[in-house]
Amino acid sequence: MAFGLGLLNGLRYTLSRVLKTYAGDFRHLGRRYDAKEFARRQSVRGDGIITVQYPEEKLAVPENFRYIPFLVYEPALDENGKPKIDPATGKQVIGIERCTACGICAKVCPPQCIWIVRATTPEGKPKPKPAEFYIDIDVCMNCGYCAEFCPFDAIKMDHDYELANYERHVSHIYDMPTLLKSTTYYAKIHPLDWEQEEAARKAKEAAKAKK
Amino acid sequence: MAVTPPPAPPETRVNLNDPQVVAEKIKTTLPDAVESVSAQAIVVQNDKLLEVARYLHDSLGFDYLNNLTSVDWLDRFEVVYHLTAIRRGGTPLTLKVNAARDNPTVPSLVPVYRGADCQEREVYDLMGVRFTGHPNLRRILMWDGFEGYPLRKDYKEPYYEEDHKPFGTRWDQGHHVIAEDRNPWHDNVKYPGNFDALAFKPPRDEIRTIGVEQAVATKLRTDKIILNFGPQHPSTHGVLRLRATLDGETVVAVEPVLGYLHRNHEKIGERNTYLGNMPFTDRLDYFTSMANNLAYAVGVEKLMGIKPPERAEYIRVIMAELTRWLGHAVAVGFLYNELGAFYTPLIYGLEERELILDLFEAASGSRMMCNYVRFGGVARDVPAGFLDKCQYLVDERLPRKTDELESYLVKNELFLARARNVGVLPGDVAINYSAAGPVLRASGVKYDVRRAEPYSIYDRFEFEIPTGTVGDVYDRIVVRFAEMRQSLRILKQALKGIPAGEIMTGKKNYQVRVPKGEVYGRAENPKGELGFYLVSDGSPNPYRYHVRSPSFIHLGALNEMSAGYKIADLIVIQGSIDVVMGEVDR
Ligand code: SF4
Ligand code: SF4
Q1: I need a surface site. Which of B258, B260, B385, B481 has the fewest CB within 10 A?
Q2: Entry pTM
């Protein structure tokens, strides 16, 4: 092969890549590409490189995506069976917290960033409920073990990855009010898991009722 | 004409890697060298170690030192060697030697296996075992003035809380404390008696590296200069520092200065539970977390004596081979960075990697810190659509991209001029330096853990072990491209054969029971042989947890590869061995 052909071939390839990168933009001349084009170019069938205009645009995360756990609560229901909304905060009113303070997540957590204080009855007997629950999210390595091994589906992995803050020793120690999120939210971000777990729960309850 | 193979000589029928067999042989030549022998290991007399190693190397063909580490047994230290004969493969032979608890010394094996150099320094640094006869016994990961030996059982690190996790303060009265508040940094660091930080000078002036040729005689009388690359240098792949002695533009010697990313991974591992270590292995070579998970699981499962179900095995292989493809694509891309082709080839590699990471993310929940493999299976089944996407990548896209990348990168004349006959590492030298993976194979040595000691289900797949001829930078790239193709070949077979079914043996349990014993589990990672040496005392935490990191050991051979070449080549050579500092410094 004549000297330089390999080089030229490289330049040709780079040029074709440049053109491919802008091909989508040419097709949408004068306006930004639409959601369909965006999805196509992010898929295995896309070609060329595209800039996601974060934070205006975001990539969708898959359901299994795991980032910082949260505690799940069942919202209190109003007379229509709809989650009750606190008019002051606009948030759902907490009905039951699922967590029983069994401590499994605190034991399995590899960097040991979960702290749980178990609640006690006025007589001093332990109650299956956390009095305090902390996660140091700077220490959390997002391994997902807590959610994987919790026997009560009480702790789940979140999708919210925007955690930046001005300091870390107060706002990055998540306490119970920060950690608690409703089942509605959970069902929204983990629709398949939610469906499965609900089905399993119903089956269990049905088996119990039969007995 | 049919050729009947000659009957195998009687010797090859016995397992030549079996400690009992080897011990018998040693006894015939060196009668009082063997202290004891078991089904797992040979314990050798401390003062006879070098002779035994020579004998094993020269007469029994154990030419490759896989791994060298040590265990603190409180009353003594045990230094552990794993040896393989490259052409035989099989489970490595375990050799052990005991050293007294006070002032422990062991003969250095550097005269026989030069790959022992960095590993002995690591043991000296972290365990305090002195290796007599080592040409350059200095700390390697910790800084020179550091007091204490961080892997000893009596060493307590800053923020020390308890010997083992889970800590008692987390539940059921777990009031949150910030570690730094409980135990401010300087209170828990020990300094030598009259240490003065300002007056401190590292205990050396001259560079001392093994095998340094004195400056090439030239007509001009020139002084050698010492040049520091890094640790903050865009070309050194993270916080790697290279201390190069130069004669003009020629590299006379180069010594990697390590430890900037050291976090005592092994001590953390001994504090963790077995399961708790899995996400930590992600952080070794963070490009290949799936494969790291697999290597660790291979070790622990060997110890536990369990096997994952079929589907899980296939999923593991698919993940590991995708990892290999992306690891090599990124390695090649970074090398072109070093050559001055800034980021364009790298971005092309990263673009494909993103698609694979999308798959990893969908399956495991994370792009890089996958934490996907569990003992006896995988964390969860792959989601719907995963296999289809994977099939498209493997059948259509990745083969096309491999061809494209190769055609315009490898045939480029500028690349050829810079890569051919640069950084040559001949095959026997590569073996002696314990090189592994693509670096070893580029030197013409046909050795791959997937074939030498098949783990998971690699014995079912058809694939070749590509090798180079010269062992230069060019071969290392070509071998990587060939391996990418072989990975795709394995992937095709795996995607075809993947059965439906369970993904976990038994019930998922966070309290893993690991019986007493020890194991050296290894796997062929994109960077080379990743090994885990685990000692279990039956408790929930490993007694000893050692990582044999290929990048670390490859850096030990960097001097051999780069002496005599130009300074600009040094960067390229360093790029061609593809180091990741997360794995080097641990
Ligand atoms: S494992 Fe689940 S139920 Fe138990 S303490 Fe943790 S969150 Fe609560
Ligand atoms: S995700 Fe992992 S590190 Fe984070 S709180 Fe849960 S168990 Fe701990």
Answers
A1: B385
A2: 0.88
